[in-house]
Design goal:
Keywords: Oxidoreductase
Number of helices: 6
Shape: elongated
Number of domains: 2
InterPro entries: Flavin_Rdtase-like_dom (IPR002563), NADH-dep_flavin_reductase (IPR050268), Split_barrel_FMN-bd (IPR012349)
GO molecular function, one term: riboflavin reductase (NADPH) activity
Radius of gyration: 23 Å
Distance between the termini: 47 Å
CATH superfamily of the largest domain: Electron Transport, Fmn-binding Protein, Chain A
Strand content: 35-45%
Oligomer: single chain
Organism: Achromobacter animicus
CATH class of the largest domain: Mainly Beta
EC number: 1.5.1.42
């Protein structure tokens, strides 16, 4: 089995049923980011080795509790112990290897490709009073129906990032035709009340701004965040929704477009 430390921030256990090896593979990344990733799974022993807790491996495997997997995993740990690779804390020694096949596209090519993806436009809002904040996103996506969850991405340097995490709640307001002034205010005005000057925003029972004529307003509690490269994934459990009849808009090639039914040949 192999723990993979992506330079995007993700951690995954690959080949969880391969008990003939145990190592940690890391993408090329800044030293401080790598050390933070290692701290999430165990601790560094030296330049070429880390110590891993069996409980972390069980958690990452998603097979914990499966009798057959547990039996094979225990045999692997026993084998490591007999060879002196398990310390007094019960942590297993694993080799560190560097992924030397991490070829990726340039930032410009990435942005060009993503501009070609039509996506809905939402105004995400949070907080009240002086702590009101919001941002326009085109990354809102459904995650789960049971429990009901949605998510979106926010750049870690964005002005809305800290207020979102501080408040722990947000409203995703799906925009449509007639919301051009709302989009403009969110894009140009500073955080606070000025950003909500257009659209007739009202406050919900938790003090978060809701756009009354949005195609849908989705009120959420933040239940999960995950750092992925330059952005954080924000996941919200849906507490309340409201839907209205309106014509949607999309973001395409860095511009806002209306849409109309089309027959695909």
């Amino acid at each position: 089995m192999r723990i993979y430390l992506s330079n995007a921030g993700a951690i995954a256990l690959r080949d969880a049923a391969d008990f003939g090896r145990l190592d940690v593979m890391a993408d090329p990344q800044p030293a401080d980011r790598l050390e933070r990733a290692i701290a999430r799974i165990g601790r560094r022993e030296d330049e070429r080795h880390v110590r891993l807790s069996p409980s972390v491996l069980r958690f990452l495997s998603q097979h914990a509790g499966d009798p057959a997997w547990e039996a094979s995993f225990s045999k692997m740990v026993d084998y490591a112990a007999r060879h002196g690779w398990v310390d007094e804390r019960g942590d297993i020694r694993a080799h560190m290897v560097v992924n030397d096949c991490d070829e990726v596209v340039s930032v410009d090519d990435f942005k060009a490709a993503m501009r070609s993806l039509p996506a809905g436009i939402s105004a995400v809002s949070t907080g009240d009073g002086a702590d009101m904040a919001g941002m326009i996103v085109s990354s809102l996506t459904s995650i789960s129906a049971d429990p009901p969850m949605v998510g979106f991405f926010v750049q870690q340097t964005a002005s809305a990032h800290a207020p979102l995490l501080r408040n722990g709640r947000f409203v995703a307001n799906i925009l449509g035709e007639g919301h051009g002034e709302v989009i403009e205010a969110f894009m140009k005005n500073p955080q606070g009340r000025a950003r909500f000057a257009q659209g007739g925003w009202v406050m919900n029972e938790h003090g978060a701004p809701v756009l009354p004529d949005a195609l849908a307003s989705i009120e959420c509690d933040i239940v999960c965040t995950e750092k992925l490269g330059t952005h954080d994934l924000i996941v919200g459990k849906i507490r309340r929704t409201a839907c209205r009849e309106a014509r949607p808009v999309i973001n395409f090639q860095s511009a806002t477009h209306g849409i109309a039914p089309a027959q695909i040949q």
